[in-house]
UniProtKB/TrEMBL annotation, chain A:
The keyword Repeat does not apply. Belongs to the binding-protein-dependent transport system permease family. It is a multi-pass membrane protein. One of its GO terms (cellular component) is plasma membrane. Coiled coil: none annotated. Residues 85-299 form the ABC transmembrane type-1 domain. PANTHER family: BLR7065 PROTEIN, SPERMIDINE_PUTRESCINE TRANSPORT SYSTEM PERMEASE PROTEIN. Keywords: Cell membrane, Membrane, Transmembrane, Transmembrane helix, Transport. GO terms for biological process: transmembrane transport. It comes from Xaviernesmea rhizosphaerae. Its main location: membrane. This is ABC transporter permease. It holds the Pfam family BPD_transp_1.
TrEMBL record, chain B:
It comes from the Bacteria. It comes from Xaviernesmea rhizosphaerae. Residues 4-234 form the ABC transporter domain. GO terms for cellular component: ATP-binding cassette (ABC) transporter complex, substrate-binding subunit-containing. Keywords: ATP-binding, Cell inner membrane, Cell membrane, Membrane, Nucleotide-binding, Transport. GO terms for molecular function: ABC-type transporter activity; ATP binding; ATP hydrolysis activity. This is Glycerol-3-phosphate ABC transporter ATP-binding protein. PROSITE patterns: ABC_TRANSPORTER_1, ABC_TRANSPORTER_2. Gene3D superfamilies: 2.40.50.100, Nucleic acid-binding proteins, P-loop containing nucleotide triphosphate hydrolases. It is a peripheral membrane protein.
Length: 310, 358
């Protein structure tokens, strides 16, 4: 065993330079990572936020000046924005709820042993592997009475009075992207909930069965409490995700008919890439960011409270 | 409380039989211990009684009623699991009262039952705690409390002490025994630990490879093991076996060991001349005698246990154990002369079954 020679530093009379080097040393070690984080995350974020206070229109070469809160003032008067906000609530709520519900049912089914379970589990994951753009096109075609079977089936079942395209119906159009989104998003819930389900010790179910609990009581008093943390975190994630998720709407309805399926995220897309008004789009994005941050904070606080109560 | 009867109860998965037909009548208030090595089918048998495992063949009756097809909750039995299987999100009191709450008993009855059980188990200070804030021994008590509260027809224990350290296991073992004395509840207890089996059981069911080997009182199994498996499994350190051939004389027999050593027996054994037999003797019954000892042995290893010493010997090149409370024997590498008291010998035939008693 050999020991490295130890450097004896005099305890007294540290020079100012020495003290600075001592204090700065950890920062130098972490500098590469800090610089990377700043460059990759913060700079684009701040630049993007700054657009919200500038007049940036791609087709106007004289734009680019600082306009202060003008965009936000315009936004507060923008009825299309408020409608998009309401649509976002509707779109996010319905999508997350249905994805969760079907995901949970699927996870419970896949948790029971049966022949071919391995293949079934792999197949369930399939929609997740389909690019959202393709999924949107596919569902748009399925809802199209000229080439898709769905309107005819729905008419035959009496759900629709005639085999029309629901994507063209202002009252029903939102259901198109929601259904596509539910189809696409079920695997996420199914797989994460299945993983959580499989972590529940079997003994507990057996003990409860002997204690006299029926299937429903076992679900309520064992399965749900064990799943609760996973449910909370997946719903939080998916809510933020879906509120921001405009792909399916852009592909399937492009916000129409008559802005009936315009959500905030697709409204931002429309403002930025169709009207080419980046400044206004950034202002909307800023508002959406603040709303989602507030939502996340509320959820995090509630979760913290629950953990402390435990 | 109730009696449990198993009649030709067996279990198989497809064509693979994991449990041969078992016949067992458990009387009201008996403490039955199913003991055997891992994979012998003892836990499967217990789970079949509980209703957690389907019964492939035979009949299971509790209090004379056939319960093969009844669901676990309708059999009115309680079970204590090796992992305790406590509900982690419920307090100790809620864990214990869960079954009563499911049965919609009144609040007063539940509170009374829980406080009676918790007083008996010394759990009063922990009633509001969650299981994760308890030690292993306390969790074990809660698991037992959960069973007691219900006043079931029978208690089933699935290796309940295996996760505890040696000291605590000893303590809980005594507590289970005391509790059985107080409640007089019919109990079926699964363990791989023969000490637990010996100390707790009114009757032991020794099992191996999916078949019952012997059923009897603990000392019966110790004194008169039915076959080589039971002889080797019960007792610690395990019984010594010496293989030899039977030599029949006019009135008495002798066993000739491989190296030509002849061991005369005081009576005639029911074996053909030249038939292979196995001699068994427990380490604690082997004597050391410098003058009279018949067999010479070399001491290979000495294990002091405090109470005495376990000597690992070589007898004619075969490993052989001796237990003695005489500490002076502690000398590794020494040579000894040992004696095999005839009345302590066990004789097994070619198939490994017990022959006539000596």
């Amino acid at each position: 065993m050999s020991h490295p020679p130890t450097v004896q530093s005099p305890r007294t009379g540290k020079s100012a330079l020495r003290r600075f080097v001592d204090a700065a040393e950890p920062w130098f070690y972490s500098a590469p990572v800090l610089v990377l984080i700043l460059a990759v995350m913060l700079v684009p974020l701040i630049l993007g936020l700054s657009y919200a206070f500038r007049d940036i229109q791609l087709l106007n070469p004289f734009s680019g000046g600082f306009v202060g809160l003008k965009h936000l003032q315009a936004l507060s008067q923008d009825q299309a924005f408020y409608r998009a906000l309401r649509n976002t609530l509707w779109w996010t709520g319905a999508s997350v709820f249905l994805q969760f519900l079907f995901g949970l049912i699927l996870a419970l089914l896949l948790d029971k042993p049966f022949a071919g379970r391995g293949i079934a589990q792999a197949l369930v994951f399939l929609p997740w592997a389909v690019p959202t753009f393709l999924a949107g096109l596919n569902w748009a075609w399925l809802f199209n009475p000229v080439i898709g079977p769905l309107p005819h089936w729905m008419a035959a079942l009496g759900i629709l009075s005639a085999p029309d395209n629901i994507l063209a119906d202002p009252h029903l159009a939102m259901w198109g992207p929601i259904i596509a989104n539910v189809w696409w998003g079920i695997p996420f819930f199914a797989i994460t909930l299945l993983a959580a389900l499989q972590a529940i010790p079997r003994d507990l179910y057996e003990a409860a069965e002997i204690d006299g609990a029926g299937p429903l009581q076992r679900f309520v008093s064992i399965t749900l409490p064990f799943l609760a943390p996973t449910i909370a975190i997946t719903i939080l994630l998916r809510t933020v995700w879906i509120a921001n998720f405009a792909d399916l709407i852009i592909v399937m309805t492009n916000g129409g008919p008559a802005d009936r399926t315009q959500i905030v995220a697709s409204y931002i897309f429309t403002q930025a890439f169709r009207r080419l008004d980046f400044g206004y789009a950034s202002a909307i994005a800023l508002v959406l960011l603040v709303l989602l941050l507030a939502y996340s904070m509320v959820i995090v606080i509630i979760r913290q409270r629950l953990i402390e109560k435990d | 409380m109730a009696s449990i009867a198993l009649s030709r109860v067996g279990k198989s998965f497809g064509t693979v039989s994991v449990l041969n037909e078992v016949d067992l009548a458990i009387e009201d208030g008996e403490f039955i211990v199913l003991v055997g090595p891992s994979g012998c089918g003892k836990s499967t048998l217990l789970r079949m009684i509980a209703g957690l495992e389907e019964i492939t063949t035979g009949t299971l009756t509790i209090d004379g009623e056939r319960v093969n097809e009844r669901r676990p909750k309708d059999r009115d039995i309680a079970m204590v699991f090796q992992s305790y299987a406590l509900y982690p999100h419920m307090s100790v009191a809620d864990n214990m009262s869960y079954s009563l709450r499911l049965r919609r008993r009144s609040k007063e009855i539940i509170a009374q039952a829980v406080s009676a059980a918790s007083a008996k188990l010394g759990l009063d200070p922990y009633l509001e705690r969650r299981p994760k804030a308890l030690s292993g021994g306390q969790r074990q008590r809660v698991a037992m409390g959960r069973a007691i509260v219900r006043k079931p027809k029978a208690f089933l224990f699935d290796e309940p002490l295996s996760n505890l350290d040696a000291r605590l296991r000893e303590q809980m073992r005594a507590e289970i025994k005391r509790m059985h004395g107080e409640l007089g509840a019919t109990s079926v207890y699964v363990t791989h630990d023969q000490i637990e089996a010996m100390t707790l059981a009114s009757r032991i069911v020794a099992m191996n490879a999916g078949a019952v080997q012997q059923i009897g009182a603990p000392l019966d199994l110790y004194d008169r093991p039915a076959n080589l498996f039971v002889a080797g499994f019960i007792g610690s350190p395990g019984m010594n076996f010496l293989e030899g051939r039977c030599e029949q004389g006019a009135d008495t027999s002798a066993v000739v060991l491989p190296k030509g050593f002849r061991l005369p027996l005081p009576l005639r054994i029911p074996a053909a001349d030249g038939e292979k037999v196995t001699l068994g003797i427990r380490p604690e019954h082997v004597t050391v005698d410098a003058q009279q000892g018949e067999i010479e042995a070399a001491v290979e290893l000495v294990e002091p246990t405090g109470l005495g010493v376990i000597l690992h010997l070589l007898v004619h090149g075969e490993p052989f154990k001796l237990f003695s409370t005489d500490r002076a024997l502690i000398r590794s590498g020494a040579r000894l002369r040992i004696g095999l008291p005839r009345e302590r010998l066990h004789l097994f035939d070619q198939a490994g079954n017990r022959m006539a008693a000596l």
